[in-house]
Write a structure and sequence with these properties.
The chain has four helices and no strands. By secondary structure, it is mostly helical. Helix 1 packs antiparallel against helix 2 and helix 1 runs parallel beside helix 3.
């Protein structure tokens, strides 16, 4: 198989899989980011950033680890498997990075909302913690 065809296949598969993931996650990501960011404009920036990450990171992995120059023509199936594995590793890394950042943002937003709710009820959280610790210590002494 021609080196140019193998290289084109690597780049094409990377772009195709990236676009499929972007299409699949686009609407879901927009909903979450508008909620987290507060405005559609802010969310729009992060959606664009995420789309670029899904295109460029897998493409960089494919380009850095391309083996298109040392393949014998009769070994096409292992080459396609290698191409797909590099592309999917890039997609997985990108998904993990984006997922982690969104998860941290949701967790932080949820915790701050929970803290505001507790403060609005007038509950003294520190007093409850002290009472819990005191009760725990008396149980330890009894045991």
């Amino acid at each position: 198989m021609n080196t140019l065809i193998i290289f084109g296949t690597e780049v094409g598969l990377s772009a195709l899989i990236s676009l499929c993931i972007i299409f699949y996650l686009g609407k879901l990501l927009r909903t979450i980011l508008v909620e987290l960011c507060g405005t559609a404009d802010r969310a729009g920036f992060w959606i664009g950033f995420t789309k670029l990450m899904f295109i460029f990171l897998p493409l960089m992995i494919v380009l850095l680890f391309s083996a298109s120059d040392n393949i014998a023509p009769e070994h096409i199936i292992p080459q396609i498997r290698n191409i797909l594995s590099r592309v999917l590793i890039g997609e997985l890394i990108t998904l993990c990075m984006v997922g982690y950042v969104i998860w941290k943002s949701i967790r932080t937003a949820t915790m701050s909302a929970w803290e505001k709710f507790i403060q609005s009820t007038g509950v003294d959280v520190e007093k409850i913690k002290r009472e819990y610790q005191a009760g725990k210590k008396t149980e330890e002494v009894k045991s």
